[in-house]
Amino acid sequence: MIPARYSASRFPGKLMKDLGGKPVIVRTYEAALQVDLFDEVYVVTDSEVIYNTIEAVEGKVLMSKKEHECGSDRIAEAVENLDVDIVVNVQGDEPFIDTVSLSKLIDVFKGDDKKEIDLASLKVKMTDEEDIQNPNNVKVITDTNDFAIYFSRSVIPYHRDKEVNVDYYKHKGVYAFRKNALIDFYHTPMTPIEAAEKIECIRYLEVGKKIKMIETSVESIGIDTPEDLEKAIKQLTNE
User: Fold this and answer.
1) Does any domain span residue 43?
2) 83 contacts: CB under 8 Å, gap ≥ 6
3) Which of 2, 162, 168, 170 is the most exposed place for a label (fewest CB within 10 A)?
């Protein structure tokens, strides 16, 4: 499922911006098809422009019936009455899909015989101090089994003792959910901490869901700003 809002606070209409002759959302949709990991690929949108654009390339697209605060809510509405087990959220503004990382996410559930994992997501190590301090980069800390403890825009952990070596990880907004965990999330009101941080996965933690974090070394290009779009155009040209 590729949630696709037309409006975006930092870069309005970014999913319809031209990326090498095609809109960003079409690039992402086609990339999701090409990885050959999914039984079905859908774009889920609240925008007639995006809906018509995906239809024009004979893609599968669902119109979101309600206003939603986050991608999980939009996807949950779309899959609530579909016969699915695992749902993967691919961000509409990340057209360069990392097949290896997505495979790792899906494989997590194959080895989860007791069904302890409610959802899985990705983390990537950060070493640049500016990246670590940047509130646009959501940080995640995990337990010894790589289950998420907390996500924050603040720097976590706080490095009080500089003699202790500590790693910092950025959360990448790619998820794989069990359908029931996604539906539970959908029917739970937004929590105050989630609202304060503007990080949807905090709601999962607050209602007791277990999030398995998978480390990846691939730092894909997410298109959040016009500068990001320029980087994406350069990467596409290089490919």
Assistant:
1) yes
2) none
3) 162
Tell me, what's the pLDDT at 30?
95
Q: What is the pLDDT of residues 115-127, one digit of tens each?
A: 899 999 999 999 9
Burial of 109 (C-beta count, 10 Å sphere; 0-12/13-18/19+): middle
| Residues 121, 170: Cα–Cα separation, whole Å | 11
Domain residue limits at 119: 2-226
User: What is the number of structural domains in the chain?
Assistant: 1
Is residue 237 predicted with pLDDT exceeding 90?
Answer: no
Within the chain, strands assigned E span 2-4, 18-19, 22-23, 43-45, 61-63, 86-89, 119-126, 139-142, 148-152, 168-178, 211-215
Contacts of 65 (CB under 8 A, 6+ apart): 77
Mean pLDDT, range 160-165, rounded to an integer: 92
In this prediction, residue 239 has a pLDDT band, given cuts at 50, 70 and 90, of: low
How far is CA 234 from each of CA 28, 92, 131, rounded to the nearest angstrom? 16, 19, 22
Q: Is residue 170 part of a domain?
A: yes
Q: How far apart are CA 29 and CA 57, in angstroms?
A: 10
Tell me, what's the pLDDT at 145? 95
Task: Give the amino acid at 208.
Answer: G
Q: Cβ distance 204 to 185 under 8 Å? A: yes
What is the distance between the alpha carbons of residues 127 and 141, in angstroms, rounded to a whole number?
A: 15
Hey, what amino acid is at 138? Answer: V
